[in-house]
């Protein structure tokens, strides 16, 4: 039967959060509000890491914050597949009033429905949005790069040729000389 773990104090909760960020027990103890010299903070951090209920809280937080390999591959797969921006784009006419107050077509604008992109679950596939003088510039994650990363993770590229590697072993001259000597021995033999 599993042992019931104690609740964490406010300082211990802060220690856990800072430890997730820094992976450094001494810094985490200091940031969490523990007082003392470097040696004291180091001892407090070490003691906190030795307590089962704090270790369990750290493990829980790590499991919440760290992606497992399946999630990484899933995200890379989504990047590789991407989405069609044209499904979320609309060309709208732009009108202005002329001198007589009549509405006149002056051009067209490209509208992109970012709310729909987010609602459809593709928001994380947009790397960067930039406001420019001519509108919004959208940069998506590189689908080719994602495919390469997936291929590497799945071992699809097992052969690696290192063209910069130093050639080890006998020089070509020695190899040719040895072959000539062997050929001579065969003839003389």
Summarize this, please?
By secondary structure, this protein is of the alpha+beta class. Helix content is 50%, strand content 17%.
List keywords for this structure.
189 residues; alpha+beta; Arc Repressor Mutant, subunit A; two-stranded antiparallel sheet; two-stranded antiparallel ribbon; 8 helices; 50% helix; 17% strand
Task: Report on the architecture of this protein.
This protein has a domain at 10-65: Terminase, small subunit, N-terminal DNA-binding domain, HTH motif (Arc Repressor Mutant, subunit A, Orthogonal Bundle). It has 8 helices and 4 strands. The protein starts with 9 loop residues before the first helix and ends with a helix. The mean pLDDT is 84. A two-stranded antiparallel sheet has the order 1-2. Strands 3-4 form a two-stranded antiparallel sheet. Helices cover 50% and strands 17% of the residues. It has 189 residues and is α+β, with helices and mostly antiparallel strands. Helix 5 (69-81) packs antiparallel against helix 7 (143-153). The chain is flat, with a radius of gyration of 32 Å. It has helices spanning 10-22, 25-31, 38-50, 52-65, 69-81, 114-119, 143-153, 172-188, and strands at residues 89-97, 103-112, 126-132, 135-140. Strand 1 and strand 2 form a beta hairpin.
């Amino acid at each position: 039967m599993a042992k019931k773990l104690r609740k964490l104090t406010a300082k211990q909760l802060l220690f856990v959060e800072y430890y997730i960020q820094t992976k450094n027990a001494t810094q985490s103890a200091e940031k969490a509000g523990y007082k003392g010299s470097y040696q004291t903070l180091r001892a407090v951090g070490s003691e906190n890491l030795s307590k089962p209920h704090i270790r369990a809280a750290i493990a829980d937080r790590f499991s919440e914050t760290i992606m497992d390999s399946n999630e990484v591959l899933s995200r890379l797969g989504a990047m590789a597949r991407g989405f069609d921006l044209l499904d979320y784009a609309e060309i709208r006419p732009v009108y202005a009033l002329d001198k007589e107050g009549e509405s006149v077509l002056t051009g067209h604008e490209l509208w992109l429905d970012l709310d729909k992109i987010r609602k459809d679950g593709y928001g994380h596939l947009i790397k960067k949005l930039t406001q420019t003088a001519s509108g919004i510039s959208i940069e998506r994650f590189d689908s080719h790069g994602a495919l390469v990363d997936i291929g590497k993770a799945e071992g699809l590229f097992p052969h690696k040729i290192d063209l910069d590697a130093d050639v080890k072993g006998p020089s070509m001259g020695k190899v040719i000389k040895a072959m000539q000597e062997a050929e001579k021995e065969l003839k003389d033999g």
